[in-house]
């Protein structure tokens, strides 16, 4: 990557994204809901955790590799599915190329702007993510398309609550991109010539359709019509999840688990993995940070299913903290979206490199040869940090 686009931390990528993107597009990446308490706690909770380093005994080379849902990955960080479009003309294909270049896997949102077939061509380590939208027949059709395309796993996200108010105001996202909306956006876009130029070169406006909600080869419905259908679909029961698990047959993750009782039910329906997640603080505000909920969930089911975490990961040492508290790997959301906005594919690679070197240096400080050596003794965990959700009140800490 050229020196002038390289960044050394995710915070710098975020500032670049803010400078490059039209205000409403940047606000869509920040997302969060209501007061933004959960989104903030996801990040801040990591700074409450400390390390207990060794002074001598570090090894020369460290092994950061692991597996998630049957896929070998070179670092314990994978791409979390996100449905934001209009950040970069290559969108999910650029992200897939970056993840492949850095040897890791990717979750593809069903609200993505690129067809799954194109994204898998760039990275075959692809997990397709579904929302409960349109009922069993419609979901089965989408899942079969993903299977035919070669998806190696399914991620089911069920924690969305349609919470729409934000104290700082929500961005106005147009129903579709045509000349009228481009002109309306232009006062914002004109101050962001880099972003505008990227699209001008493609001769195509940002795609606000969701092609993976339709049959292969079709353009897919506009984002808001798919969203409307989702709002009117009855939410899934545990029987529905068991049905989908059975239909898919292969590696299967339930994303959004925060409670021990839910984690145990997920094990009962036969999932292969869960992600301790609160959707990046975009749904039910007031949910604790995911890193606070992780230890109890990992203790309860970590020997039966793969436990991942997503929410608030901004540096490699956050990944190490999550692994020390029981996660097998983590998923990142905003961090790579900011990298994508800042410098396209190279920006996502840059973010994954920041994660790699941060994990590596934390492991060195702790004196380990591999990420699998991490354990709770490596951390300073303040009293009252852990939140054991979904266990009898006496066990609540
Ligand atoms: C802008 C945005 C869009 C998202 N879209 C989806 C989505 O389509 N499907 C999904 O399962 N999660 C979605 N998420 C949640 C992420 O997969 C992930 O849980 C979250 O971003 C993790 O928190 P972090 O952003 O602090 O890393 C989205 C998150 C953001 C910020």
From TrEMBL:
Chloroplast recorded as keyword: no
Gene3D superfamilies, sorted: Aldolase class I
Gene Ontology molecular function terms on file: FMN binding; oxidoreductase activity
Transcription found in the keyword field: no
FMN hydroxy acid dehydrogenase domain mapped to chain residues: 2-384
SUPFAM superfamilies on file: FMN-linked oxidoreductases
InterPro entries: Aldolase_TIM (IPR013785), Alpha-hydoxy_acid_DH_FMN (IPR012133), FMN-dep_DH (IPR000262), FMN_HAD (IPR037396), MftD (IPR023989)
Pfam family, one: FMN_dh
Domain of life of the native organism: Bacteria
Cofactor: FMN
Binding-site positions, glyoxylate: 131, 166, 279
Active site: 279 (proton acceptor)
Alphabetically ordered keywords of this record: Flavoprotein, FMN, Oxidoreductase
Ligand binding (FMN): 81-83, 109, 129, 157, 255, 277, 310-314, 333-334
PANTHER family, A to Z: 2-HYDROXYACID OXIDASE 1, S -2-HYDROXY-ACID OXIDASE-RELATED
Similarity section: Belongs to the FMN-dependent alpha-hydroxy acid dehydrogenase family.
Protein name per its UniProtKB record: Putative L-lactate dehydrogenase (Cytochrome) LldD1 [Mycobacterium tuberculosis H37Rv]
């Amino acid at each position: 990557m050229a020196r002038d686009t390289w960044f050394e931390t995710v915070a710098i990528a975020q500032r670049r994204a803010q400078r490059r993107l039209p205000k409403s597009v940047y606000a869509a990446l920040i997302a969060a809901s209501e007061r933004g308490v959960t989104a903030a706690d996801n990040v801040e909770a990591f700074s409450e955790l400390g390390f207990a380093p060794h002074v001598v005994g570090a090894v020369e080379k460290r092994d950061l590799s692991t597996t998630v849902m049957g896929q070998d990955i070179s670092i314990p960080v994978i791409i979390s599915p996100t449905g934001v479009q209009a950040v970069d003309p290559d969108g999910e294909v650029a992200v897939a190329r970056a993840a492949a270049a850095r040897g890791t896997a990717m979750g593809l949102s069903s609200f993505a702007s690129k067809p799954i077939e194109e994204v898998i061509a760039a990275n075959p380590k692809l997990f397709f993510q579904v929302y409960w939208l349109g009922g069993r027949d419609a979901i089965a059709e989408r899942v079969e398309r993903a299977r035919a395309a070669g998806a190696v796993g399914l991620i089911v996200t069920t924690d969305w609550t349609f919470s729409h108010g934000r104290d700082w105001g929500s961005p106005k996202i147009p129903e579709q991109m045509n000349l009228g909306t481009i002109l309306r956006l232009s006062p914002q876009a004109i101050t962001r010539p880099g972003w505008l130029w990227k699209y001008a070169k493609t001769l195509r406006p940002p795609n606000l359709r969701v092609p993976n909600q339709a049959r292969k080869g079709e353009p897919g419905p506009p984002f808001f019509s798919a969203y409307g259908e989702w709002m009117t679909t009855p939410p899934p029961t545990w029987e529905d999840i068991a049905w989908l698990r059975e239909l898919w047959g292969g590696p299967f993750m339930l994303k959004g688990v925060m409670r021990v009782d839910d984690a145990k039910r997920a094990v009962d329906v036969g999932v292969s993995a869960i992600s301790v997640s609160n959707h990046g603080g975009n749904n039910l505000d007031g949910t604790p940070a995911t890193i606070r909920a992780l230890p109890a969930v990992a203790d309860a089911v970590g020997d039966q299913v793969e436990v991942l975490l997503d929410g608030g990961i901004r540096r490699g040492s956050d990944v190490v903290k999550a692994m020390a508290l029981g996660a097998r790997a983590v998923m990142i959301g905003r961090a790579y979206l900011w990298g994508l906005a800042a410098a396209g594919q190279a920006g996502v690679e840059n973010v994954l490199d920041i994660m790699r070197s941060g994990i590596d240096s934390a492991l060195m400080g702790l004196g380990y040869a591999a990420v699998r050596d991490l354990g709770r003794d490596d951390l300073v965990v303040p009293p009252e940090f852990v939140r054991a959700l979904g266990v009898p009140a006496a066990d609540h800490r």
